[in-house]
Design brief:
The complex is a heterodimer. In chain A, 0% of the residues lie in helices and 51% in strands. By secondary structure, chain A is mainly β. Chain A is globular. By secondary structure, chain B is mostly beta strands. Classes of the chains: A mainly beta, B mainly beta.
Chain lengths: 107, 121
């Protein structure tokens, strides 16, 4: 199966900062990479699909880049509601695999 | 509005059986694949398997084949994840998620609230 390695596992930042979370696939997954936000006690929310396509309801401060094996989620100008866990998912095969998650905490 | 509502938390003993559910509403249940995902502190998120309610086609993740059964009742728009004999290692939060396909891409566009399953003697 395709392994997804996400880093960092946790990150401290301040409101207004720009942060980058990375996800590396164990093989070429072209652009079949999705990003989700997950807050405690709530269902995860899709942010980005196809590596860089912003989901309709997601704020424009979220962006995604990458193709092949290396991908990034960039949050520009952190807002208080952005402190959450983020995880990537490969959808190159229907045997989906996920990154381990990045917990974004307030500094 | 699409909603996936899962059944409540369960506490079971090793060896017991269990079935948890996920009821879909706000969309045509038989037209979309639905996935089950396991979340544990140690292994993070793992895809358990996917089901197409329209024809009951089911696919299982390599770690879950033979360990669980995924099924659906089209008459009630409900999907199920079932264990015949639980192990302590099945302790986790389980999510169902609707799969949206916009070729060539697909993603999980709606998730249930999660069901915590605790298996302990």
């Amino acid at each position: 199966d395709i392994q997804m390695t996400q880093s960092p596992s946790s990150l401290s930042a301040s409101v207004g900062d720009t942060v980058t979370i990375t996800c590396r696939a164990s093989q070429n997954i072209r652009r079949y990479l999705n990003w989700y936000q997950h807050k405690p006690g709530k269902a995860p929310d899709l942010l980005i699909y196809g590596a860089s396509i912003l989901e309709g309801g997601a704020p424009s401060r979220f962006s995604g880049t990458g193709s092949g094996t290396d991908f990034s989620l960039i949050i520009s100008g952190l807002q208080p509601e952005d402190f959450a866990t983020y995880f990537c998912q490969q959808a190159y095969t229907n045997e989906y695999t996920f990154g381990q998650g990045t917990t974004l905490q307030i500094k | 509005e699409v909603q996936l509502v899962q059944s409540g938390a369960e506490v079971k003993k090793p060896g017991e059986s269990l079935r948890i559910s996920c009821e879909g509403s706000g969309y045509i249940f038989t037209d979309y694949w639905l996935a089950w995902v396991r979340q544990t502190p140690g292994k993070g998120l793992e895809w358990v398997g996917s089901l197409y309610p329209g024809d009951s086609d089911v696919r299982y993740g390599p770690s879950f084949q033979g360990q669980v059964t995924i099924s659906a009742d089209k008459s009630t728009n409900t999907a199920y994840l079932q264990w015949g004999s639980l192990k302590a290692s099945d302790t986790a939060t389980y999510y169902c998620a609707k799969i949206r396909q916009l070729p060539p891409h697909n993603w999980f566009d709606s998730w249930g609230q999660g069901t915590l399953v605790t298996v302990s003697s």
